[in-house]
Amino acid sequence: MKLDFNSLRLRLTAGVAAFSILGLGSLASWTGWRMQQILIESHKKNIEEIATQIPRDVEMLSKMVPEEQAISQAINNFKTNNALLWVESLDNKVLAKSNTVMNSSKSQENELASLTQVPIKPKVVQIKNRYFVLCSDSLSLQGKVIGNISVAQDITRDQTMFVVMIQSVGTTSILVIIIMAGAIAFYIQRSLKPLRQLSQMTEVISADDLGKAQLYLDKAPSEVKQLAETCNMMLARLSDSWEKERQFVSNVSHELRTPLTIVHGYLQSVLRRQQNLTEIQKEALETAASEAESTISLLQDLLELARADHGNLHLNIENCILNDIVSEVVEMADKYSERDITVEASKDVIEVKADYNRLKQVLLNLIDNAVKYSEAGTPITLKLTRKEDEGCVQVCDVGYGIPLQHQSRIFERFYRVDEARNRAGGTGLGLSIVRTLVEGMGGKVSVRSKLSEGSVFTVSLPV
Fold this sequence. Notes:
Elements: H1 8-61, H2 67-76, E1 83-89, E2 94-97, H3 106-113, E3 123-127, E4 130-141, E5 144-154, H4 156-191, H5 193-203, H6 222-272, H7 279-309, E6 318-321, H8 322-336, E7 341-345, E8 351-354, H9 356-372, E9 380-387, E10 390-397, H10 404-407, H11 420-423, H12 430-440, E11 444-450, E12 454-462
Parallel strand pairs: 7-9
Antiparallel strand pairs: 1-2, 1-5, 3-4, 4-5, 6-8, 9-10, 10-12, 11-12
């Protein structure tokens, strides 16, 4: 399934998941930092107490024994497990070191004692694979600083537990984020279901359904219901506008056809008595008669479509021999066209359900279309085939062809492809009428075309 990065569902899921990651990540980081502080605080008091008590003991013992012996004795008086105490002179020479047994190795103790900079405030450091809390303070004797005393508390066990706990918190946070993202995606999908239903309902509404189309959602949020009501009002307005437009086209076509027919008749009558006409007058009258005839044809097409829109297009569906209809149409087309029109058909008789006269009109329109949009002298071929429960007629030409981007719209009303098709002078209604008639007879029409190679229009009707 391809992800749509512009979908509302993906954006909401990603947004909530990002905020969840940020929130849980911040919480986990703060928890880790806070636990580290608690770990340090738990040992800080003991270390600071040792670092404070040693100078006082040294001060007292120095009155009874030599200075170095007093320092060593004061350090050894503290029996603190897992803690190392040592005193360094001002020139970083170790004056004394405790004999406390630690879990660390001697090399680690020596490495601790060799540290040149021990922090004054307690701080966690790692020596190889063990962790220590370090702290130092100055050692004064009789008001004179003689060195520094340092304390190292082994907290490897506590730190290991802390690391395991942090890892557990991190793993738990990741699992919680994954579960939350899945739950959020499911919840958002359920929440957007009314919008998808609304989209599916509007998708199937056609121009003929505008008057009776109603969008209704039972268990939907109030905002979606309000949207559905707004769409219903919009559909009602569109239906009213569409009905007025169709009525206008029908009325205008009907009102104009009669006077134009009369005008065309008078023009033809004058042309038949052309003895007293000059060549210029004759040419002008012929042009006027031709334009009147084209306009009458256009109005007739508009009336046909208006009847179809109002459901008044009556078709006399009966069993028809497709072979006979094609032969009759080709014979009629030969009379007004100088093209070579051929028929390719098997000897089998193909019987279809159609309106005999309307089917002739469809095929004549397609042949006329092929004549208009192909070069003079190129052949036009009609192919008859039967496919399962359909009888098919293909009208093939070797013409200009139709660009791929226009083929899906070629049957729309007044839609005309640029360039060659405009030069042919079509009205853009012929193919629309073809589709209306064919679909009214229960069939379908399609086109397959390539530029500069020609077009194939296929009419399929039920047998």
